[in-house]
C-alpha cells in the first residue's frame, strides 16, 4: 500500500463504509482533508453538547469502537494505509477533544485549533503512535491521543481563561 494522496474513484465512494470513512466526502477536500473532516464534526459536537453527557459519551464510544474497523476496511479497499482522505479518525479525535467541554464558541474554536495542531504536528507521543501502530487501530490511535492531549490542554485553558 502506498501513495497517501492517490486519486479515489467514484466506484470506491459507492461503498458506504468507505464513504463514512471519508467523512461523508469531506476527506476528499484537495487541501487539508483532515481539517475538512474535523469541520464536519463541529455540528455533531455542538448537537451532542446540547444532549446529556451520557449521550455524548455513547456516540463517542460508538465512533471509537467502530473506528478501527471502518478505517481498516477503507484502507484495504483504497489499497493505501491511512489515505489522507480517511477522516473518520479526525471525527473521533475531535469528539474526544470537546468531551465535557461546555458549549461556547470560543472553546469550540480553541478546541478545533488545538486538535488540528496536535494532529498535524504530531509531537511525541503522537508521532510514535503514528509510526509504530498499524492497521485500522493505528489509523485511529494517533488521533485519539491527539484528542486526549487537546482535551487536557483545553480544560486547563478553560480553567485559567474561561472560568464558568
Structure report:
The protein is mostly helical and 164 residues long. The chain has one domain (10-161). The chain contains 8 helices and no strands. It has helices spanning 10-13, 16-21, 33-49, 53-78, 88-97, 105-121, 126-132, 135-161. The radius of gyration is 15 Å and the shape is globular.
Keywords:
mainly alpha, 8 helices, globular, 164 residues
Structural class: mainly alpha
What does the average pLDDT come to? 93
Q: What global shape is seen?
A: globular
What is the string of helix and strand elements?
A: HHHHHHHH
The portion of residues assigned to helices is 55-70%
Radius of gyration: 15 Å
The rounded distance between the terminal residues' Cα atoms is 48 Å
Major β-sheet, in short? none
| Number of β-strand runs | 0
Please count the helical segments: 8
Poorly predicted tracts of residues? none
Strand content: under 5%
* Total tally of structural domains: 1
